[in-house]
Structure formats: structure tokens, C-alpha cells
Amino acid sequence: MADGEPGLVARVKGRLPPPDVLRARLEQARRRMPLLDAGVEAVERDVEIGGGILAGALAYRLFLFFLPFAFMLVAVLGLVSQATGSTPKEISRDVGLVALVTNEVASTAKGGYSIWVLLASLVVLAYATRVLYRAVSIVHALAWERSAATAKARWRPFRLFGLALLVELTLALLLGAVRGQSFVDDALALVAFVVLTTANWLCISLLLPHSSARWTDLIPGAVFFGVGLLVVNTFNLYILGRLQEQRTSTYGTLGAAAAVLLSLLLIGRLIVGSAVVNATLFERRTRSAAADQAVG
Length: 296
Prior knowledge:
This protein is mainly α and about 300 residues long. It has one domain (about 35-275). Helix content is about 85%, strand content about 0%. The chain has eleven helices and no strands. Helix 4 crosses helix 6 (about 95-110), helix 4 (about 50-85) crosses helix 11 (about 250-295) and helix 6 packs antiparallel against helix 11 (about 250-295). About 35% of the residues are buried.
């Protein structure tokens, strides 16, 4: 079988047009289809700024954020469980990525929930939020201006960024809480999640570098992030979460860590993609307006 593979590859390559012909066809298609042209330009911009590497860097910062957040949430749920008789794992089992992290923390907490854990987690969480804000700001500066010079961590935008993150986490918690009630409730919850997440990310985008773009210019990227985050959350709830529950004895902590890191990488990709989409579309509109003005 191995001996036949080179021959198969050679036959497939022989049937494909030469690279120059493929590039010429792509350029012709781009001139005919503006949507394709915008997509290719966005991909080229993503490659130029190292979108994959930036997404990985964001995944690391997101992990640093979610870890103290999970300890804080488990501490809160632990204090609540003392009054309700349930466990943190039972309370947080259906909240997507948050559940992937809190389940592991809750499994190792051994009932050690205290106000001191909560206070320590809040301090670390504040620092992790600032680190995450700085990283997201740099990503947007690179996407918009191909330079990180405008990525400055100011106090007021940082506070609003932290508030917006709290809103987004609350939306994820509410989505998990209403899941499974009925088909209509699930559909309404999904629509509401996308709309509210889109609006929330639009507000976050206004706090980050975005050149001279108006808030309406940031809507496409916000929609991209809202729909993408719904897909990631659904993936976490129905696939990664189930695999984590079923394969814990097989893969243990490494399997849980891989699931969490994969989710964080996907979210990092969404953050980079939303900035690239907005920057690309704004630049195209600016070029088109300049060309129309020159003709006029």
C-alpha cells in the first residue's frame, strides 16, 4: 500500500492545473465575486499578522483567566451547596467551557470551600483579566494597524472590559441553565445568546484599537464572534463535555486539559477572526470610497 501512494499522489497532481493557472483562475473569480475577494483578503491579512500564533497566545491568557475564575466559581458554588445540599459539579454541569474547567477543580477541591479561597481567587482573577485585556488589545492593534503601538492598557477601558467579560460568562451560565427545558425554549435561548453575545462583543470591540472605524463598522466581526462562540459552546456541551465525563478514567487530567485547551484555542481564533474581519471590511470600504471620490 505504501508503494502505491506516491503513484496515486502523482496521478492526482497530474490532473490538477499548474499553480500559475490556479492562481489566475482565483484572481478572475475574486474580480467577479466581491465576497470571495473579501474572504481571501481576510485570510491573507490573518496570515500576515500570524493569526494562528496570536490565537495560541490568547488561549494561554484565557487559561490564566479561567483558572482563578474556576476556583472563584467553585468556592461560591461550594458555599451555596452547603445550603442547598448539592455539589459544585452538579450545579455547574451544563455551562459549556466553564463546566469543563470547574468540573476538574470541583473534583479535586474535596469540599475545601472557604471565603479565603474566594478572596485569593478574586485577586488573581483581577490580574489575569488585565493580562487578557492587554493581549486582546494587542491582537486588535495588529489586525487593524499591523502594529501594537496603540495597544495601551488604560484603566477605564480595562474596567469596562472586565464588566463585559462578566456579562459574557453570565450569558454562558444562563444558556446552560435553560438548556433541555423544551425545543422552543432551547431555540429562543440560542437566539438570545447570539444576539446578546454579539451586542456584548460589539461593546468590547469599541474599547479596543479599531482605527477610525465607527461602531457600525464593527458589527460584522461582532456577529462573527457571537455565532462562532455559540458553535464553540455547543461543541463543549455536547461533545467535549460528554467525552470528558466518559473518558476521565482513561485519559485523566491530560484528557481534560486537552479538551480545555482546544476550546480556548477556538475562542482565541474567534477573537483574532473578528478583528481581522472588521479590519478587512473597513479597509475595503475606505479604498472604495477613496476611489469613488477620485473618480468624482
